[in-house]
Design a protein that fits this description.
about 450 residues, alpha+beta, five-stranded mixed beta sheet, about 20% strand
């Protein structure tokens, strides 16, 4: 795309920038840690490889200052942008705490590179590389290309040569300018931007905002995003039953799980009208597959359980609502929030469920010196929303279902562990009920879950 003097934010970036401007920058840090063990860990090559990756992917060397016309992207010259990588000696038992502290520091998006790196040296042949990138410059599907490029650059630097990357067909600025050209201006009532905004404003008006969730703890208006995690897993048999139910309904596994999520949330909030969110990748074009940057964004789904006669009808409603949401993916949340007649302090949504499919990992690269590279936990759990499921569906090499698993995250400032566990159990029970072929009415399910909640409260 022809370059312009002013490069605006991509629509997917606007929410992160607004959150950072409001003081929530650290909540959007994406941290990864990799333990590298074996003979001959080359720290100089590792540092050089990080610079190689920053040179290759412009979002990793982009600042986001505010201007009179709004925030912009300013890409630093590749010969100037350098990541300072310190080497810190520590014991294995303390490395997770050190990574959590390092990963929790806020970025100044107007002045800082949106990437930090640190090497924790546990021994002569044992180090941990910690990478922290702000979400405004990276999404979940960027992790694969980023790590492939980093390993390739490290191998090249170990061999004392510069890496040779396959040229990217487009860069993130191309994507941004194309997206704005496609969407058009909001002051044009016929533009895609205006059409999408109008769809959301009409679809969401009159909904309960916020949902009255059973918060177990008192908290201030500014909610700490420190969170806790509950691991969830459905075995292969349940996975197969869910796929069968989805096929019978002409829906997808995602839509069936969203149906269970809506039922559980409606019972939890005692509201038959709930709004949930999910993420869209924004990578429909194959040219974007290897791009590091933030292309993903949230879309909302308003589900009216009081308008469904039975479970089949509700699954069909979720199917239609999801397809409509996926057809309108480009309205930034801050702009939509300004258009709705609600308290601007209330969030657009409080609950989200994301489902992704696990990919078959390629064979591990042969690293000089017999090194092993294994991802390890960072010790960082941030819950930006009240109820968050991040699920992954697994299949074997033949395509046979192997189960669904993933974490449920919740903010510890709002929910105690017992309340969070109760919601996970409610969701699990609803998933199992749908998988069993239940086609009955919805209202009794909401009443039964409320009775379970009251029994749980009496037992505490």
């Amino acid at each position: 795309m022809p370059r312009t003097p002013r490069i605006p934010l991509a629509p997917a970036q606007e929410r992160m920038w607004q959150a950072a401007a409001a003081g929530y920058s650290a909540d959007w840090n994406v941290a990864r840690a990799f333990r590298i063990r074996g003979a001959g860990v080359n720290l100089s090559a590792l540092r050089a490889a990080i610079d190689d990756v920053v040179r290759r992917h412009a979002p990793l060397r982009t600042c986001y200052p505010a201007t009179a016309e709004g925030p912009v992207q300013m890409v630093m010259d590749a010969d100037v942008a350098r990541v300072e990588v310190q080497v810190v000696d520590c014991f294995p038992g303390e490395v997770t705490d050190k990574i959590a502290e390092f990963g929790g520091r806020a970025f100044d998006l107007a002045a800082d590179l949106p990437i930090r790196a640190r090497i924790y040296r546990l021994g002569a042949r044992d180090v941990v590389l910690a990478l922290v990138v702000h979400h405004i410059s990276l999404d979940g599907q960027s992790i694969g290309p980023l790590m492939r490029d980093l390993v390739g650059a490290y191998l090249a630097r170990c061999a004392r040569r510069a890496p040779v990357f396959t040229p990217l067909p487009v860069d993130y600025i191309d994507y941004t300018l194309w997206k704005h050209e496609f969407l058009g201006a909001y002051d044009d009532p016929c533009s895609p931007a205006s059409t999408q905004l109008r769809y959301w404003a009409n679809n969401l008006v009159g909904r309960p905002a916020p949902l009255e969730l059973p918060y177990g703890r008192m908290c201030s208006a500014r909610v700490d995003a420190a969170g806790a995690m509950i691991q969830l897993g459905f075995d292969a048999d349940l996975h197969e039953a869910l796929l069968l139910r989805a096929r019978q309904a002409g829906a997808s596994l995602f839509m069936v799980l969203q149906t269970a999520f809506a039922v559980s949330l409606a019972a939890f909030a005692q509201s038959p009208d709930v709004t949930v969110a999910t993420a869209v990748s924004g990578r429909d074009d194959p040219q974007l597959a290897d791009l590091v940057g933030n292309l993903a964004d949230d879309v909302l789904m308003r589900i009216r359980l009081d308008r469904a006669t039975d479970m089949n009808d509700l699954i069909d409603q979720v199917r239609r609502v999801a397809l409509a949401a996926f057809a309108h993916p480009d309205t930034p949340n801050p702009r939509l929030q300004r258009c709705l007649p609600q308290d601007p302090g209330h969030p657009l949504f409080q609950a989200t469920l994301i489902l992704q499919r696990a990919t078959v990992e390629p064979p591990a690269p042969v690293v000089p010196g017999g090194l092993s590279i294994v991802e390890m936990p960072t010790g960082i759990v941030r819950a930006k929303h009240d109820l968050e499921f991040g699920l992954t569906e697994h299949y074997d090499h033949t395509g046979a279902p192997q189960g669904v698993s993933g974490p449920f995250l919740y903010p510890t400032a709002r929910f105690d562990p017992a309340t969070a566990q109760r919601f996970v159990e409610s969701f699990t029970a609803t998933v199992e009920l749908i998988a069993s072929g239940y086609t009955g009415p919805i209202a009794p399910l909401l009443g039964e879950q409320r009775r379970r909640a009251r029994r749980a409260l009496r037992m505490r």
